[in-house]
Design goal:
Layout (H helix, E strand, L loop, with lengths): L1 H15 L2 H5 L3 E9 L4 E5 L4 E3 L2 E6 L4 E6 L6 E9 L1 H11 L1 H10 L3 E4 L3 E4 L14 E7 L2 E6 L12
Parallel strand pairs: 1-8
Antiparallel strand pairs: 1-4, 2-3, 2-5, 5-6, 6-7, 9-10
Helix pairs in contact: 3-4
């Protein structure tokens, strides 16, 4: 009896509106990351400028090109494509008739975005040698000597302050 009731509710819901709009909506959240983090991300078509890591709320019916930029790194692009989901088209035709087809076609709810996330590694520009971070630790003076530790070789000049 529960299965029959659930099927009846589903059939009524699809008759009232469009299947894809009801089940998945017209927008999709896409997680976006970059290495290094903190890169700027612009979308085309334009939806704004964001800083990684972030989640973009994008329309399913559009294909987007994401452009990543960060100081000291070459820009990188990433494409998120819109793909038609045939199952929703068939469900609209069979269950909702012309109303569902019109609504889902106009809103783009038939589509999904692929890939479902974006991860981009930016490449350093030439002339920028060395690691991102150099950590230097200076220890207390013992017997007139100061201990210096570094994560990479560095040149240290010590000047006595009077």
């Amino acid at each position: 009896m529960r299965l029959l009731r659930a099927a009846l509710v589903l059939a009524i819901a699809c008759q009232i509106g469009a299947c894809a709009v009801i089940f998945q909506g017209t927008r999709e959240n896409i997680p976006v990351q970059s290495a290094p983090s903190g890169a700027s991300v612009a979308t085309n078509p334009a939806t704004g400028t964001f800083t990684t890591p972030t989640t973009l709320d994008l329309q399913r019916k559009e294909t987007y090109v994401l452009t990543f930029t960060a100081a000291g790194y070459s820009p990188a692009s990433f494409t998120i494509s819109s793909h038609l989901q045939a199952g929703y088209v068939v469900a609209d035709v069979l269950l909702t008739g012309l109303i569902g087809v019109i609504v889902d076609a106009a809103t783009g709810a038939w589509y999904s975005l692929h890939p479902e996330s974006a991860t981009v590694s930016l490449t350093r520009t030439t002339g920028m040698l060395g690691p991102d971070t150099i950590r230097i630790e200076i220890g207390d003076a013992h017997n007139g000597q100061v201990g210096v530790n570094s994560t990479v070789p560095v040149h240290v000049t010590v000047t006595r302050v009077p």
